[in-house]
Specification:
Layout: E1 9-12, H1 18-29, E2 33-38, H2 41-54, E3 60-64, H3 70-79, E4 85-88, H4 103-113, H5 115-131, E5 134-139, H6 152-172, E6 177-184, H7 190-203, H8 207-216, H9 226-236, E7 248-251
Parallel strand pairs: 1-2, 1-4, 2-3, 4-5, 5-6, 6-7
């Protein structure tokens, strides 16, 4: 299927690895020109070159900037003032408990997983509306719909993003601009490796035991593949998905227990 987005321009936040990179790869496979983002410039250079080699004929650039700072976001917007596709993403806060959620921790969660996405959407949305095409994909979390205690900080900030984007989505749909959220759980990325190490240390398990325990919590009895996640992102960016907006798509191997 031709998704009809060849030669569109995409900016993918936090895309030097993990879910962000998976989205970048799937969009590049559809002929989308890609701008990567991360804080490690050397790593970005390597990843950008690997994409150029894998997907001939597309433009791949990179912006080294910290999304959590106003200076970082200003640098992004000065370098790349317009895009057709925006994929927001950032690493989540450390797991913790109520005693850990002091004011500074709450503020840091919002500064990482709410404010950057909203500010980039504010900046890019008017141009999308004027051109009559725009796709915003927010990488959030399955915890938005199934909160877990230890992930309360991440859940709160990402749920705030979900709410504000739902409100915005109704206002821009008539301009062929859609805003949707991808809710991953147990997709095989460096973030899951971090959570695996945490489980190993807490429970005294070896890696194989810890991974087996996690797999048992997934209805599909396996981890999700990054390329499955990336391809879902690419479809939501497609011409064919222009009637899908304000939605939360869970990529969790069928693990969610609810109806809606």
């Amino acid at each position: 299927m031709d998704l009809g987005i060849r030669n569109k321009k995409a900016f993918i936040c936090a895309s030097s690895q993990g879910l962000g990179l998976a989205c970048a790869r799937s969009l590049a496979a559809e002929g989308v020109d890609i701008t990567l983002n991360g804080r490690d410039e050397n790593k970005l250079v390597e990843v950008a070159q690997s994409l150029r080699e894998a997907f001939a004929g597309i433009q791949v650039s990179a912006i080294a900037a910290d999304l959590t700072t106003a200076e970082g976001r200003a640098h992004i917007l000065a370098t790349l003032p317009d895009v057709d596709i925006l994929v927001t993403n950032n690493a989540g806060p450390q797991p913790g408990e109520l005693k850990d959620w002091h004011e500074e921790a709450l503020r840091a969660a919002m500064e990482a997983n709410f404010i950057p996405a909203v500010q980039l959407i504010r900046a890019y949305l008017p141009g999308m509306q004027q051109r009559g095409f725009g796709r915003v994909i927010n990488i959030t979390s399955a915890m938005v719909k199934s909160p877990h205690y230890m992930m309360g900080l991440s859940t709160s900030a990402r749920t705030a993003l979900t709410a504000i984007c739902k409100a915005i989505s109704r206002d821009v749909a008539a301009d062929n601009v859609t805003i949707n959220n991808l809710l991953p759980e147990r997709v095989d990325t460096p973030r899951q490796e971090f959570m695996l190490q945490r489980l190993m240390n807490k429970e005294g398990l070896d890696r194989e035991q810890a991974r087996a325990r996690n797999v048992q919590s997934i209805a599909a009895k396996r981890y999700g593949k990054p390329e499955e996640f990336g391809d879902a992102c690419a479809f939501l960016c497609s011409q064919q998905a222009s009637f899908i907006s304000g939605q939360n798509l869970q990529l969790d191997g069928g693990s969610y227990d609810g109806l809606v």
